[in-house]
Design brief:
The protein is α+β, with helices and mostly antiparallel strands.
C-alpha cells in the first residue's frame, strides 16, 4: 500500500511544479528540475527533517543511466572534507553539520537506497561526501522525466559559514539534496552529454537549473521567517508551532532564515514587493538599505534587463549570525551592516547592491560559478561599482569623509593593482584552482577592472548594449565565458565596425586568458633648440636655456612613451605645450616604445597618458604623467592630510 501511495503521489508532482503558474504569468525557464519539500525545524536538535518530491527532465537525445545530486551540507561533516581542507579550519564535533539520506525512492516506488554511490569527481577525496550518484534500474529515455522521493535529515552546523545556526539564529541554505546540471553536447564547453556536479569547495559557489519550488516549513511559532519564496499561507498549530507554505518559480536555489529577533519592514519598487529583515537595534539602516536595493533594481533594469519576479527579500543578519552575511539566492540575499555604522561609510549600501546584483548574473543568467567564477563575481562586481558610484558620487561613493573620499571602482581596482599575486594565474581557472589566496582578487577585482577597461575602450553605451544583448540572448540558459565574448564581438562590430579589428578576441586573450599586466609610462620630455650653420642645414642640437630660447626660433619638442607591461591596449596621450595648447595622440600600444616629436617655437610642458583613466588595468597611474615644471606644493598639502587621515583611521577601527 505504501508503494501504491508513493506512485500516486509522484504521479501528480509534474502538474503542480511543471505546469501551474502562481507567481509568474508563464515559465521563464525550461524547468528541467523541480522540488516540493515538506520540512520541519527541530529547535532542540538543530536539525531540519524533510520529505522531498523532485523531478529531473532528460532534455538530451540519449538515455541517461543515472542521477547526480549535491549533498552540500556534508561539507561541514569533518575537518577532512574538501571544503574544510580548502578553508583551512578545523571542525569540532559539536560544530559539525551534515545531511543524511533516510529513504530514497524512484518514481515507480522502487527503493534506490542500495544504488547510492558517494564519489568525489574533483579531487578524489575519500572523506568528502558532497556528491552522490544514483544508478537507476532503467535509464531515463530522451524527453522522459525521472521522479524521486527523498526523506532526509539535515544537521545544521553551528559555526556559520554561509549556512548554519548560532543560538536561536538560523540561516538555512544548501540544506536539501539537489540535482546537478545535465549538460548536453555543445552546452557551454560540453564535448559530450554528462552531469556537471562538482563537490563543495571553500572558494566555489554554485551551478543549478532554474526550478520551481513548493516549500512547506513547520517550526516554533516564535520565529520570524524569511525566504526566497512568496508566502502563500500560514497557519498556527496546536503544539505551539506554525506551518508556512512558500512558492518560488524559476530560481536556482531555495534558502531561508529564522530568528525571533527580526524586525520586518516592507517597501515597493514598481512591481516588486520588497521585504527587509534586520535586528531591531539597526532601524537607522532601514532607509539606507531600501534606497540601495531600489537603486540596484532601477539601474540594472535600465541597462541590463528586467527583474522578472514580483517579490524580493533581503536579510541583515544579527552579529551572532554575521557568517551568513553577503550571500545570494536569487530572490533572497543577505547583506552586512552593524550598529553605529556612520553614513559616510557606505559598506552596507555596497554589499546590498552587490548581493542583489547576483539575481541577474548568478540567478537569471545562471553561469557556472564552479568553473567560471569571474562570469558571476567579476561581472557583478563591475556592475556593483557602477551603481554605487553612480548614485553615491563617482569620487566619494564608498568613503565620503572630508579627509578621505574613495569611490567603489577605484577601491576595487586598487585591490587588483597592489596585489603581489596579480600575475600568478589567469581568470580562466576553476574556482578551487586559484593558488595562494588569489581567488577573490582575481575573480572579483581583476575581472571587474578589465571590464571597466573594456568599457573605457568601447564606450559606456556600447557596454550597456553588450549586457542588454547578453541578457536577451542568454537569460535562463546558462551561458559560458565564450558565449559572453561572442556577444561582445557581435555588439562591438555592429556599433563600431572594424575600428577595433574584426573582433575583440585580442582583448580577452590578454585580460581574461592572460597573466600579463598593463603599465604605460612617460619616459621623458625633451625640448631642444635646433641651431643652424652654413647653408641653412641643421648642425647640432643643444639643450634649451633661458638665454638661448630668446634668440633661437626652432625647438624640437619630444615626448617619449614606454609600454612597461605585457598587455597591449590602445591608449590616448594628451600633450600640453607652454603656450596653453593641447594635442591628443592615439597609440595602439603594440610596440614597446614610441615618440611624439614636434618642431616649432614652443615647448612641451607636460604629458598625460590616458587622461580620462579609461585603461583601468594600468597598474601604475603615477608614471602616466610628467611635467617639466613640477610643483612641490601638493606634496606638502598631502603630508598634512596624511596626519589627519591617521586620526580618521583610528576612529574608524573603533566603530
Amino acid at each position: 500500500m505504501k508503494r501504491l501511495f508513493l506512485i500516486l503521489g509522484l504521479a501528480f508532482l509534474p502538474s503542480n511544479l511543471l505546469f501551474s503558474q502562481i507567481i509568474l504569468k508563464e515559465p521563464l525557464s525550461p524547468r528541467l528540475t523541480g522540488y516540493s519539500i515538506d520540512a520541519r525545524l527541530d529547535d532542540e536538535s538543530k536539525t531540519v527533517e524533510g520529505v522531498m518530491d523532485a523531478f529531473w527532465v532528460n532534455n538530451s537525445t540519449a538515455a541517461v543511466p543515472d542521477l547526480h545530486m549535491h549533498l552540500y551540507m556534508n561539507a561541514f561533516k569533518s575537518s577532512r572534507t574538501t571544503f574544510n581542507k580548502g578553508y583551512g579550519g578545523r571542525i569540532r564535533a559539536s560544530e559539525a553539520g551534515w545531511i543524511d539520506i533516510i529513504e530514497f525512492y524512484g518514481g515507480a516506488g522502487n527503493d534506490l537506497m542500495p544504488f547510492i554511490q558517494y564519489f568525489s569527481p574533483d579531487d578524489g577525496n575519500p572523506y568528502d561526501s558532497t556528491v552522490i550518484r544514483i544508478v537507476l534500474p532503467e535509464p531515463v529515455k530522451p524527453g522522459d522525466t525521472a521522479f524521486v522521493r527523498i526523506k532526509f535529515k539535515t544537521k545544521m552546523p553551528s559555526n556559520i559559514r554561509r549556512t548554519g545556526y548560532t543560538k536561536d539564529f538560523y540561516f538555512i541554505a544548501q540544506w536539501f539534496p539537489k540535482f546537478g546540471v545535465y549538460e548536453t553536447t555543445g552546452m557551454r564547453y560540453a564535448l559530450t552529454d554528462g552531469w556537471n556536479c562538482h563537490q563543495f569547495h571553500a572558494n566555489s559557489e554554485f551551478y543549478s537549473n532554474h526550478s520551481a519550488y513548493d516549500v512547506t516549513i513547520t517550526l516554533p511559532e516564535k520565529y520570524v521567517v524569511g525566504s526566497g519564496g512568496l508566502l502563500l499561507s500560514e497557519k498556527r498549530n496546536d503544539d505551539g508551532s506554525k506551518t508556512m507554505l512558500f512558492r518560488a518559480e524559476d530560481i536556482v536555489d531555495f534558502a531561508w532564515t529564522a530568528w525571533p529577533g527580526y524586525s520586518v519592514h516592507k517597501d515597493k519598487w514598481k512591481h516588486v514587493d520588497i521585504t527587509l529583515l534586520l535586528p531591531s537595534d539597526r532601524l537607522e539602516q532601514v532607509n539606507r538599505q531600501f534606497a540601495a536595493v531600489k537603486y540596484a533594481l532601477e539601474y540594472l533594469t535600465e541597462n541590463v534587463g528586467p527583474y522578472p519576479w514580483p517579490h524580493l527579500t533581503f536579510i541583515d543578519p544579527p552579529a551572532t549570525g554575521s557568517g551568513a552575511g553577503g550571500m545570494e539566492y536569487t530572490t533572497l540575499f543577505t547583506t552586512i551592516s552593524s550598529y553605529r555604522m556612520p553614513e559616510w561609510v557606505r559598506l552596507p549600501e555596497m554589499v546590498t547592491i552587490h548581493e542583489f546584483g547576483h539575481a541577474y548574473f548568478m540567478g537569471i543568467l545562471a553561469s557556472n560559478e564552479f568553473e567560471e567564477p569571474w562570469l558571476d563575481e567579476g561581472v557583478n562586481s563591475f556592475w556593483e561599482a557602477r551603481i554605487v558610484d553612480h548614485y553615491y558620487g563617482k569620487n566619494s561613493a564608498m568613503i565620503d569623509h572630508r579627509l578621505l573620499k574613495i569611490p567603489d571602482a577605484a577601491l576595487s581596482r586598487l585591490v587588483y593593482t597592489t596585489s603581489p599575486l596579480k600575475q600568478l594565474v589567469s581568470n580562466d581557472e576553476y574556482s578551487w584552482n586559484y593558488p595562494r589566496g588569489s581567488y577573490s582578487m582575481m575573480s572579483y577585482n581583476k575581472a571587474a577592472t578589465w571590464l571597466f577597461t573594456l568599457m573605457g575602450i568601447t564606450g559606456e553605451e556600447t557596454m550597456n548594449g553588450i549586457f542588454r544583448e547578453y541578457y536577451n540572448r542568454w537569460a535562463f540558459k546558462h551561458p559560458s565565458g565564450k558565449d559572453f565574448i561572442d556577444v561582445v564581438n557581435d555588439v562591438v562590430v555592429r556599433i563600431h565596425g572594424n575600428k577595433f579589428g574584426p573582433d575583440m578576441n585580442w582583448f580577452f586573450d590578454q585580460t581574461l586568458y592572460g597573466t600579463g599586466i598593463c603599465d604605460y609610462k612617460v619616459s621623458s620630455i625633451s625640448n631642444r633648440i635646433i641651431t643652424e650653420s652654413g647653408m641653412g642645414g641643421i648642425a647640432a642640437d643643444t639643450a634649451v636655456t633661458k638665454e638661448s630660447a630668446e634668440d633661437e626660433k626652432l625647438i624640437r619638442a619630444t615626448a617619449c612613451i614606454e609600454r612597461v607591461g605585457e598587455v597591449m591596449l590602445p591608449v590616448e596621450i594628451l600633450i600640453g605645450f607652454d603656450d596653453g595648447e593641447e594635442i591628443t595622440e592615439y597609440w595602439d600600444g603594440k610596440e614597446r616604445y614610441t615618440e611624439y616629436e614636434y618642431t616649432g617655437d614652443r615647448k612641451i610642458a607636460w604629458v598625460k597618458i590616458d587622461p580620462e583613466y579609461r585603461i583601468r588595468m594600468d597598474v601604475n597611474f603615477i608614471n602616466n604623467s610628467m611635467t617639466t615644471d613640477p610643483d612641490r606644493g601638493p606634496v606638502r598639502r598631502i603630508t598634512g592630510k596624511l596626519m589627519l587621515f591617521v586620526q580618521l583611521f583610528i576612529s574608524m577601527i573603533s566603530i
